[in-house]
């Protein structure tokens, strides 16, 4: 995983609550057996006027001019501003893959669905929870004529946009992993001895859990 | 020692290690695998030169992409090339890594959340995970079961563990005897209507109370299946005699001395008297009526004898807007009686409601009746090959076919329309599945979530109907 560095990015305001993973990446695109290439179909049903299928040339498709991702102000946005319960629905990791592949690196929302929230960190996306009032303010700031640019500094846990500033909370372990680009599996495999010891204990306590079938 | 919740017991018995900030490494007893969320995990494993930590903890089956029409041609005959690739990729990965798989033509194949309990592969006291949010289903037998993403699938394959933080504990008590025609599905829809789709976010939910105890294990599977629609990754129910009776004799269940030892342990899997929860919600089952969702989120639900709600009466403007958007999408007018909504298609199936009791309930309504003229298609898709065989042994398939339903092969089918079964734009479906999101059953398709009995009643009358009225006439 790449290290998460401080950056300045445009804020794209997606003013809908309960945006689910089916909306983030419609299911016809889940059939890929790869992790990359989902970005062009992010929010496909909202973003294009026709029905999208895998393998289509997206550059020829009619885009929905009313959808925020197609607004020239927000081109190249790296920060998604969202409403409550963002990422609800299925556990599919294709949703953060699509967001990351499109170029989003930070999502700001008043609340996130749990599984999606976890999946973000594993894919180098930083989800930030902010109070409703702050989110409302940001929507106002992001929907004026000129796009809102924001600086995200993870190590300082600080968001800055012009004169506006805000600290945010992030789990210490998650921050450490993001900043250092650490992969969870490698970290866990440093604990091999503890896993083995646990298994040995369980084989005695609960032997029916082991190897009765394979 | 202080009183513990069931969640405390399940959690603590799987702790390998806890960091100072509460981040824990927990051990996973059972990992279920299907074709949609696993290919990238196996790819990752291969790229890193890793092997599965414990092959026998895994059980795989293809379910999302398999056709539900006759399967003589095998995997090669799956028409959609991408669906075929996913199923073939699962077969190849399981073969390469030595993982047990019930392949598409195996009589035990089915929806992963149906076959786990059916095989006794998910047992009380286990931690159960799968790259699928409806893994909460398995909590019905007193397991800690939750959905994970593909990175975590790879993590479990490689380490048999997951990095997790303990959730808060919620207890939802449903007390009293529900009225006639009120099923586990109606209880869970009513719960979601009450607490909202984000009501359980950050919590693990224990369902309890006399109405829950009265449910069969299959009813409990339906209930826990939808814990995730209430925002909770995990939902579970204490072990009781019914649980133990249910597990006994299943292919993966322990036998002999191990069985006795297991049962003694399983008997401890309940919340202790006086255990503390972070939140307790209580519902009165006697007031719950058969439920029908009207919108594009499972919390948009009313009783069958009510009207489609009016956004104009909602004070919260963001909510009112969401309601209006849902009504527009669903093609519904506020104030319409639910019983006047006509249907185009019926889907009886999915990991929520495709077990034998569900099919019996639906067949009970379908028997001697005919699918209404305005209904273009009524599908019955059993949850597994074994459910299908059982239903056929009981003659349920004939009841359905005589009534004009289509009797299909097991899989996810029209629950999410990844195979050929789907709604056309604007079509309206009474569905026993768990999600009514926009486009879930096909682009532009309109989904109403209901119980199997309600779906069958909707099939034979062409609209939603209060089951009590159906008997009258
Ligand atoms: S039946 Fe539906 S909800 Fe269940 S696993 Fe299949 S697609 Fe998911």
Structural overview:
Chain B: Heterodimer of LeuC and LeuD. The complex is a heterodimer of chains A (214) and B (473). Chain A is α/β, with parallel strands linked by helices. Chain A has helices at residues 21-24, 44-47, 94-102, 114-122, 132-142, 172-180, 184-189, 192-205; strands at residues 7-13, 79-81, 106-109, 126-129, 149-153, 158-161, 164-167. In chain B, α2 links the parallel β3 and β4. In chain B, α12 (356-366) crosses α14 and α12 runs parallel beside α15 (452-461). Chain B starts with 5 loop residues before the first helix and ends with a helix. Iron/sulfur cluster binds at residues 63-64, 111, 113, 132, 134, 350-351, 412, 415-416, 433-434 of chain B.
State the distance separating the first and last CA atoms of chain A: 34 Å
- SSE order of chain A, one letter for each helix or strand: EHHEHEHEHEEEHHH
Beta-strand content of chain A:
5-15%
pLDDT averaged over residues of chain B:
96
Structural category of chain A: alpha/beta
Function (chain B): Catalyzes the isomerization between 2-isopropylmalate and 3-isopropylmalate, via the formation of 2-isopropylmaleate.
Protein name (chain B): 3-isopropylmalate dehydratase large subunit
Family (chain B): Belongs to the aconitase/IPM isomerase family. LeuC type 1 subfamily.
Binding site for [4Fe-4S] cluster (chain B): 351, 412, 415
């Amino acid at each position: 995983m790449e290290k998460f560095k401080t950056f300045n990015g445009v804020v794209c305001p997606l003013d809908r609550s309960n945006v689910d993973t089916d909306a983030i990446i419609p299911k016809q695109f889940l059939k890929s057996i790869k992790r990359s290439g989902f970005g062009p179909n992010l929010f496909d049903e909202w973003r294009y006027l026709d029905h999208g299928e895998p393998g289509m040339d997206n550059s020829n498709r009619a885009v929905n001019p009313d959808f925020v991702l197609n607004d020239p102000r927000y081109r190249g946005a790296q920060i998604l501003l969202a409403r409550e319960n963002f990422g609800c629905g299925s556990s599919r990791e294709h949703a953060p893959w699509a967001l990351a592949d499109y170029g989003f690196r930070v999502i700001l929302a008043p609340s996130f669905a749990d599984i999606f929230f976890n999946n973000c960190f594993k894919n180098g996306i930083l989800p930030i929870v902010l109070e409703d009032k702050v989110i409302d303010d940001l929507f106002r700031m992001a929907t004026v004529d000129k796009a809102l640019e924001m600086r995200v500094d993870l190590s300082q846990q600080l968001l800055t946009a012009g004169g506006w500033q805000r600290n945010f909370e992030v789990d210490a372990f998650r921050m450490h992993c993001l900043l250092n680009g650490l992969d969870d599996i490698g970290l866990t495999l440093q604990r091999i001895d503890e896993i083995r010891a646990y298994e040995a204990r369980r084989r005695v306590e609960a032997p029916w859990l082991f190897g009765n079938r394979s | 020692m202080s009183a513990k919740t069931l969640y405390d017991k399940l959690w603590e018995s799987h702790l390998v290690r806890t960091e100072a900030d509460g981040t824990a490494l927990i051990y996973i007893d059972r990992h279920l695998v299907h074709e949609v969320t696993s290919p990238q995990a196996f790819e990752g494993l291969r790229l890193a030169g890793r092997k599965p930590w414990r092959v026998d903890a895994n059980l795989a089956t293809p379910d999302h992409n398999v056709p539900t029409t006759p399967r003589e041609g095998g995997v090669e005959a799956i028409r959609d090339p991408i669906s075929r690739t996913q199923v073939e990729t699962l077969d190849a990965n399981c073969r390469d890594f030595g993982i047990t798989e019930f392949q598409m033509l195996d009589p035990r194949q089915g929806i992963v959340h149906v076959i786990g309990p059916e095989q006794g592969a998910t047992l009380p006291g286990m931690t159960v995970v799968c790259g699928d949010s409806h893994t909460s289903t398995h909590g019905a037998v007193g397991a800690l079961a939750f959905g994970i993403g593909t990175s975590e699938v790879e993590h479990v394959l490689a380490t048999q563990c997951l990095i997790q933080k303990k959730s808060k504990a919620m207890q939802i008590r449903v007390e009293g005897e529900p009225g006639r025609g009120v099923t586990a599905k109606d209880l869970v829809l009513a719960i979601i209507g009450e607490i909202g789709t984000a009501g359980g976010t950050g919590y693990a939910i224990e369902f309890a109370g006399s109405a829950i105890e009265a449910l069969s294990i299959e009813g409990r599977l339906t209930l826990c299946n939808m814990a995730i629609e209430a925002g909770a990754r995990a939902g579970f129910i204490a072990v009781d005699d019914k649980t133990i009776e249910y597990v006994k004799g299943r292919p993966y269940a322990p036998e002999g001395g191990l069985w006795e030892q297991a049962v003694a342990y399983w008997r401890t899997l309940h919340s202790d008297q006086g255990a503390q929860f972070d939140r307790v919600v209580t519902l009165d089952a006697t007031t719950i009526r058969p439920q029908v969702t009207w919108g594009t989120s499972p919390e948009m639900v009313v009783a069958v004898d009510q009207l489609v709600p009016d956004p104009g009466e909602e004070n919260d403007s963001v909510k009112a807007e969401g309601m209006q958007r849902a009504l527009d999408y669903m093609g519904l007018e506020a104030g319409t009686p639910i019983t006047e909504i006509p249907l185009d298609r019926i889907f009886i199936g999915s990991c929520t409601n495709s077990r034998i009791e569900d099919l019996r309930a639906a067949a009970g309504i379908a028997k001697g009746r005919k699918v209404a003229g305005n209904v273009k298609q009524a599908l019955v898709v059993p949850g597994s090959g074994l459910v299908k065989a059982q239903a056929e042994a009981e003659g349920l398939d004939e009841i359905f076919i005589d009534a004009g339903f289509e009797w299909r092969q097991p899989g996810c089918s029209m629950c999410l329309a990844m195979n050929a079964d789907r709604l056309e734009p604007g079509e309206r479906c009474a569905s026993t599945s768990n999600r009514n999101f926009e486009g879930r059953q096909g682009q532009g398709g309109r989904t109403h979530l209901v119980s199997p009995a309600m779906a069958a009643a909707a099939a034979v009358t062409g609209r939603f109907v209060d089951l009590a009225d159906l008997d009258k006439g």
